[in-house]
Amino acid sequence: MTSINACKVINLPKISERKGAITPIYAGEHVPFEIQRVYYLYDVPGGESRGGHAHKELQQLIVSVMGAFDVILDDGTERRRVHLDRAYYGLYIPQMIWRELENFSSGGICLVLASAPYDEHDYIRDYLEFVQMIKCTRV
Length: 139
Ligand code: TYD
Known about the structure:
By secondary structure, the protein is mainly β.
């Protein structure tokens, strides 16, 4: 079982200059897994929600590179809301955590670094099934 306490907001470097800022991200240094995939969510209508699933194995680092949104984290026992609104904060989510992304600001962009390629078999898309799987691992 994974506790939501294993989810961490990681401070990423910010190189600020008069002409703008840069945030470099290194696997092994800022991200506690090997990055095998990068994707981003964009054109999300303001106020919209995404996610609503857990992953059996996948680990992710989620960054709000533009705008803001909330991430609801749930380990089957506890729930926590994390507001992401800075491009230099990364939310690490390990495997077996239910997540929902809510309240997207209009024009918001969510960058995701992931530990594995896309695999639909790794998804748990039904919350009751997720809770059931957690109960089984507790026995
Ligand atoms: P999904 O992960 O369910 O989106 P979200 O959690 O943001 O609501 O993915 C939505 C669709 O996109 C789904 O049909 C699978 C597809 N998809 C890929 O083909 N490759 C990917 O890397 C991702 C993340 C999704």
